[in-house]
Amino acid sequence: xxxxxxxxxxxxxxxxxxxxxxxxxxxxxxxxxxxxxxxxxxxxxxxxxxxxxxxxxxxxxxxxxxxxxxxxxxxxxxxxxxxxxxxxxxxxxxxxxxxxxxxxxxxxxxxxxxxxxxxxxxxxxxxxxxxxxxxxxxxxxxxxxxxxxxxxxxxxxxxxxxxxxxxxxxxxxxxxxxxxxxxxxxxxxxxxxxxxxxxxxxxxxxxxxxxxxxxxxxxxxxxxxxxxxxxxxxxxxxxxxxxxxxxxxxxxxxxxxxxxxxxxxxxxxxxxxxxxxxxxxxxxxxxxxxxxxxxxxxxxxxxxxxxxxxxxxxxxxxxxxxxxxxxxxxxxxxxxxxxxxxxxxxxxxxxxxxxxxxxxxxxxxxxxxxxxxxxxxxxxxxxxxxxxxxxxxxxxxxxxxxxxxxxxxxxxxxxxxxxxxxxxxxxxxxxxxxxxxxxxxxxxxxxxxxxxxxxxxxxxxxxxxxxxxxxxxxxxxxxxxxxxxxxxxxxxxxxxxxxxxxxxxxxxxxxxxxxxxxxxx
Length: 521
Ligand SMILES: Nc1ncnc2c1ncn2[C@@H]1O[C@H](COP(=O)(O)OP(=O)(O)OP(=O)(O)O)[C@@H](O)[C@H]1O
Description:
Layout (H helix, E strand, L loop, with lengths): L5 H6 L2 H24 L2 H19 L4 H45 L1 H6 L3 H53 L5 H42 L6 H11 L9 H10 L2 H5 L4 H10 L2 E8 L10 E8 L4 E5 L6 H8 L7 E6 L2 E2 L5 H5 L2 E5 L9 H6 L9 H10 L3 H5 L18 H15 L3 E5 L7 H15 L3 E5 L11 E6 L2 E6 L1 H7 L2 H9 L5
Parallel strand pairs: 3-8, 3-9, 6-7, 7-8
Antiparallel strand pairs: 1-2, 1-4, 4-5, 9-10
């Protein structure tokens, strides 16, 4: 799933996905442990076959009735199969929605508290629980109705069997001993059939779970350029883990032109240390809104080792440019190049090593401070000294050693045990360790107070040295020293120049500066 397009993760709510996977994988595990480890299904099947053989060999005269019994049971099983799949599906979805809602509420607990939203969340949760209860009742009713009907059919067939058998004994066509054995084995057959039907019911639920997982995953494409990079690193033997069939099929048809030209690992990264990054006539629409063109023929050159600031009104496409540079998406037309080479000839994992992203809200993992910094190079064995050096360069060492367990202090879920400025400096230390030639700062200091902002800005200045940097900022005061400022509007770069050049031009940038009433010299 990690290899699917980024669009897939935009389309589904994360909680819904994890809820779905948890509940469906849970039901898969239950069925496997019940039916495979304890052989329940296999035992029932062998008992049914064995008993039928014995019954046939005991009395071929009673075989037609036995046939009727088997036929009616299999018809019922087929009806059960058809009727339960949608109910199993909706029951699983109802369960996934509950866990999605709970995780969303807990992660947004501060927002809930501040809006006094507890009552609303409780009542929404109740609704979901009731929906789960009612789908559970429906499923239970269907299961028990099926079981009752099956039993009725089985018992009526047995009654008919005994009447026929009794009349044959009376007529001297069948011995009492054989009839008694026949009755004993029909009971064994009844229980075995019941066990088989229960297993079938469980399997229906499992198929519904598998179908749900597949329907979610098949809604998106494998990101073949990412899969290619992972394939190279893991080797073919490990690709079974990555849905190789699907991957091979997709890899052969999609983007074959670029896939065939994929270059070796180091090229993209090393070119980025010495060459400019150019967006050439780039057009882009998000897959979920393919009719809306966010970028339409955008041209921009990020000069090697220099700072480019990207400004512009909200919704003008600044973050979209970042997503394209990081290759979370590819341009729908036009191209992005590094030192003249199209980015698509480098596989995505290699290109990811060339770009460091520092956002307004950096995401930390719920491990220790040191491990979060070492995540800058997740595939390498990082020494503690390297981590400390990066933390010092990011103005983070002092506060880290004052934490209760120093570098081993857990940061909590999403870094919740640290302040915004501390999280930001750990993210910068992580980027320093990564040592990528391209740095993208997306509103990196906008959420901080003056003291934290100064500490973070110092760390950023250190990080920016010698790297091709793109800074996105709403507060124009933070970008006035950039080597060039690009104003993005209507999916294009409308103005480009230094701060003083753009002010002198008296265009959109100058009026934005005026709106912000900044005291520039
Ligand atoms: N994942 C997405 N799917 C569909 N449309 C999107 C997606 N992300 C952004 N958009 C749309 O693309 C347009 C550009 O968004 P973008 O986030 O790039 O603007 P921005 O200039 O960074 O805005 P801001 O300054 O407010 O962050 C907007 O109209 C937005 O609604």
